[in-house]
Design brief:
The structure holds three protein chains of three kinds. Chain A is α+β, with helices and mostly antiparallel strands. Chain A has six helices and nine strands. Chain A is 45% helix and 17% strand. In chain C, helix 3 packs antiparallel against helix 5 and helix 3 packs antiparallel against helix 7.
């Protein structure tokens, strides 16, 4: 980290300006770009096969009234087995009703049949609600109705124009937290890494200044780690319904925080400065090397609620689309730069304090 | 001391909202597509970073004062 | 090598001269196993593995801390002038390894007597136990050598070592689950590879860092 020796308060290093501009962009773009239309609720969510049902659909960010003739809806059992709605009536922009006939026989045999609702609109694009309606089998079955499953196809669907974040069931607007919660972890790992690198420098030439640097980075890394944990808990409470789900990634991050907190405790209980610096450097390098399998290998081998691995009900398939990438990557870079900046300030303060 | 009281107040607030939204029925924090969760996350990040910066600022002021006295 | 073995022998002789040391560890294992078992009453295979490793972890922490705790400042200085740090480290690690293997076998025997043996693949279980003893003896020796330089060494060893043990522990638990047949996973070689790579990381790092940390 270069030291800026300027006195003028506005003559900052370029990367500090970059941090500010990037973060301002992230906070604005993260908030104002709307979500794609989606489906919040379907009622009823249970039905019996072999009957005509009328489904009330509540949309999110939708504009059903703009072009009612282009509304189409399907119920999908799996793959190509779909039922198209006979009639769709949009009541307002957020509410519509669709009627379906559910055949009394099914191409596969199960206890209950979860059907996915697919809605296509000329300007809103396609929205999907997985497992929208559960169908219980009918008492009398008419095998002639089997062909109904194969009559319709989902085709000629539309795409919503413009830049929007995807709507994901359960997540809804909290998908924006990707830009605020996730970079905290990236930032923490980078700061700990920089700190381990300074520890290596201290190991090489024993300059106490490197010790100060590595400790400053650990302190700020701990703050970012704690932020990641608290924000993650708030998010988890509202999507996974528990503050702490003993998810792999949650555990690993808690462990890494514990390790570095232990390092700070260890530092505070050593009197001798050189001793303190040497023990810190040793433990720091040891801990960082052990953190690598902890953070990067073990989570990959286990199922996680987090997107990207395992069976996650909230995010499936494509986790980041292009619109999100345009904000997510800058967010990561911006928060990392901010973390480096704050650590540099902490280091400079500690240095001043040490010199007095 | 003041920082501590602010922290305590914040904690209290967080727990209050936590208790308030403990029921699973859609309520304030989950209305409008759970947008308030995003607001909460942003606020937590900003407030924590600001408190951290304020602490740093005070530390530097103390050092400056000590420097002047010498 | 001879010098190292010599050192191990000295260490063992000092340790065994005081009967209380070894019997203290035996009693620690027995009583903690008894307490945990009296809470559980009956141990299903899955919980058997968990209980086993939790007790093993704490016992080994205690035992390693004890081997360091008894040495006075003067003796360290004496050692420091006589032996290369790596020789010292090797001696400590070998001694602790023997101790951990002893604890492992003792604990296995105790739980075997009290709660039965749910382990189906004994070979896997013992390999896991031996590997974890290697990993833990290196890790604990290094961490304890850091912690004794501080004022409050006993609590700090636990605080600093426990989170670092967790990557090892996760793999050990998975391998134990495989050994007792409580997991559908039928390919333990991945886990074994990961465990051995973590252990080699621990070994490499501690061999590199110990001479540096020992200086004072």
């Amino acid at each position: 980290m270069q030291e800026s020796t300027t006195n003028s308060s506005f003559r900052l290093a370029v990367w500090k300006w970059a941090a500010m501009i990037i973060l301002i962009f992230v906070f604005i773009a993260g908030w104002i770009v709307p979500l794609k239309p989606g489906i919040i609720k379907v009622s009823p969510d249970k039905a019996v096969a072999g009957e005509m049902i009328v489904v009330d659909v509540v949309g999110y960010n939708s504009f059903y009234l703009t072009d009612t003739t282009k509304l189409r809806a399907w119920l999908r059992l799996a793959g190509d087995t779909v039922l198209q709605a006979h009639h769709i009536q949009a009541w307002d922009d957020r509410n519509l009703s669709a009627s379906f006939y559910i055949p009394s026989v099914f191409p596969v045999r199960q206890e209950a049949y979860p059907l996915t609702l697919v809605l296509d609109h000329g300007s809103d694009g396609t929205s999907i609600l997985p497992n929208a309606i559960f169908i219980t089998p009918a008492s009398t079955q008419d095998t002639a109705e089997m062909k109904l499953w194969f009559r319709d196809k989902i085709e000629h669907v539309h795409q919503k124009a413009g830049i929007q974040y995807p709507f994901r069931n359960i997540l809804a607007e909290t998908i924006r937290n990707t830009y605020f919660h996730v970079p905290m972890w990236f930032c923490m790992i980078i700061l700990f890494g920089v700190s381990a690198w300074y520890s290596l420098q201290y190991y090489r030439n024993g300059d106490i200044d490197f010790d100060r640097k590595s400790v400053a980075f650990i302190k700020v890394g701990l703050v970012f780690g704690a932020l990641g944990m608290v924000t993650g808990m708030l998010w988890a409470k509202n999507t996974w319904n528990a503050y702490w789900s003993w998810d792999v990634k949650q555990n690993m991050s808690a462990i890494s925080l514990l390790i570095y907190a232990a390092l700070m405790v260890m530092r505070s209980s050593v009197e001798d400065e050189m001793q303190k610096a040497r023990l810190t450097a040793g433990y720091n390098m040891f801990a960082f090397v052990l953190l690598i399998p902890l953070l990067f290998i073990i989570p990959r081998m286990t199922d996680s609620l987090h997107p990207g691995n395992g069976g996650n009900p909230a995010l499936g398939g494509e986790d980041l689309d292009n619109a999100m990438r345009m904000v997510f990557y800058p967010a990561v870079i911006g928060f990392i730069l901010l973390g480096l900046w704050i650590s540099q300030l902490v280091y400079r303060t500690d240095k001043l304090k040490g010199n007095l | 001391m003041r920082v501590k009281s602010i922290l305590a107040f914040l904690l209290l607030m967080i727990f209050q909202t936590a208790r308030a939204e403990g029921d699973s029925s859609p309520d304030f924090i989950r209305s409008i597509g759970k947008i308030y969760v995003v607001a909460g996350v942003c606020l937590i990040i900003l407030i924590t970073l600001f408190i951290y910066m304020i602490r740093l600022d005070r530390k530097i002021s103390r050092i400056e004062k000590r420097q002047k006295n010498e | 090598m001879n010098r190292i073995l010599n050192l191990v022998a000295t260490e063992a002789r000092i340790e065994l001269r005081e009967r209380s040391a070894l019997s203290g560890i035996v009693l620690y294992v027995l009583s903690s196993a008894f307490i945990v078992f009296s809470i559980w009453k009956q141990l299903p295979p899955k919980e058997w593995g968990l209980t086993f490793w939790v007790i093993f972890l704490f016992c080994s922490l205690m035992a390693v801390l004890k081997t360091f705790g008894k040495e006075s400042e003067g003796r360290y200085f004496y050692y420091y002038t006589l032996y290369h740090p790596l020789e010292l480290f090797a001696a400590k690690v070998i001694y602790n390894l023997l101790l951990l293997v002893f604890i492992f076998l003792l604990l296995w025997f105790v739980l075997f007597v009290m709660a039965g043996n749910p382990i189906l693949r004994i070979g896997w279980f013992f390999t896991t136990g031996f590997m974890s003893a290697i990993g833990l003896s290196f890790l604990l020796t290094l961490i304890t050598s850091i912690a004794i330089k501080t004022q409050q060494n006993a609590s700090l060893t636990a605080v600093m070592a426990l989170p670092l043990m967790i990557p090892l522990l996760i793999n050990i638990l998975r391998l134990t689950a495989y050994a007792s047949g409580t997991t559908p996973d039928e390919n333990p070689w991945n886990e074994m590879m990961l465990l051995s790579s973590i252990i080699s990381l621990v070994v490499g790092m501690s061999l590199w860092l110990f001479p540096y940390l020992w200086r004072s």
